[in-house]
User: Fold this.
Amino acid sequence: MNVADLLSDSAGLAPERDAIVAPDGRGGWTRITYAQLDAAVEECARTLSRQGVRRGELTLVMVPPGIPLITLFYGLMRLGAVPVMIDPGMSFKGFLRCVETTQAKTLIGIPKAHIARMIFSRAFQTVERKFVIGSTFLGALGRKLSMSPPPPSPRAKSPRVDLAPDDLAAILFTSGSTGPAKGARYSVQNFYAQRDALLLLYDFKPGEVDLAAFPLFSLFDAAFGMTSVIPDIDPANPAHCRPEAIVEAIQIHKATSAFGSPAIWSRVAPWCAANNVKLAGLTRVLLAGAPVPLKLVRAMRAILPEGAEVHTPYGATESLPVATISGREVEAVSSRVLAGAGTCVGTPASTIELKILPITDSPIQSIDDQAEVTTGEVGEICVRGGVVTRAYHNREDATSVAKIGEGTSTWHRMGDLGYRDADGRLWFCGRKAEAVFTVDGPIFTDQIECRFSGDARFTRVALVGVGLRGQARPVLLIEGQSNETLRAEAKRISGLTDVRFHPSFPVDRRHNAKIHRLDLAKWAEAHPTRN
Assistant:
């Protein structure tokens, strides 16, 4: 097996179809066909092989979304080398910690990445081979790596290697929103299983055009035989995207599908509503990467043509997809959401086995030692299946806590709390690390915050705990300036008495939605006076 074969298969079926359409930096677009992309991937693998990059070699990839990134990713895969992808939206300190943890031998990046390598040399001390994408000077940053394939040579031997299903294919880092980011070790089989699971859930078709506003999803587009349109956005800060640019990309390239974080659609939906624009041609929009409030689902459905649908996949870097829910299903359970039931993430995928286990922070040696909680009872969501990664890279401590080995398979503890309802749907109640444990029992963040998810008056709210676990006092924070009318309304909706205002929540830049509640809890403890 080789993950790059997924691209080659698409190229074989439709060589002249556009594989990627990306901004050219001058206000226009660059296109590359499947045949051209496959040839570029082949030459990339061959060039890296000539320079000494070998099977299994960990390679930091620090290149923005676009044709070079996709070429590099599949080129390394074809060679059997291991691309390492780190979320660009995390703090720079966290980013360097991920680099140091990886202990990669090769770095392929734009000049800015190599300047960081030279300034913060300790984090990059294991790097031996250095390749630069883009302009450089005097070779000081590393060897220039061209992404332009030469004319094909039928005599040249392909550097493609044959891998076993369990061989390491890539390391993809989590966002680190509730603790240090960790590198999930993806096997070859994990990628194939993800491809199959996504096809089952969303019925992607070869020849469709996908607006890939979530960079990593463009890698799957190639496996589906779809044309991937990469919009002109900063992948590390999508909350500042220009909504008109997203809409223009959808319209110009006649996109039938789109995938992006809530941060993007939270800008696009109001812009479309204000300008009376419908996203004609789209048949599905996927919102993922962070919690999706009810008001955003409703806003998105309002700007889609009849017959199109919004979908919210649920999962994590270590296991995706786990479940999915459509906009129509969200509306069907909206009254329960607003009453504090949590966020319904839909029916678990048929490719996933799911259990809800009692809440504990201790490692679990055997799944057989754990009795599942009852229907409707909140516990930790645990999953097993082909998409579930088996370990974290160089983090045995984290692996022992998050993974439960069972023969040749692995259960992943999501770190998410939730429950099943009587109809078998899965409800998300918040992160385990952020639950508030009071003397009267636990209070779960999402069961409080979701009560505000349909109310436009509240931009963001967050439940935090002040005090020791088991004795914590629940505090509801509202983002914005102090407003006594809103405070009174928030008390009524939440049932909590301690309601405060915070000027600007700390959130992850990548999704602009994952609230750093643990930091907010420290702020609340340091500001005891109710404002």
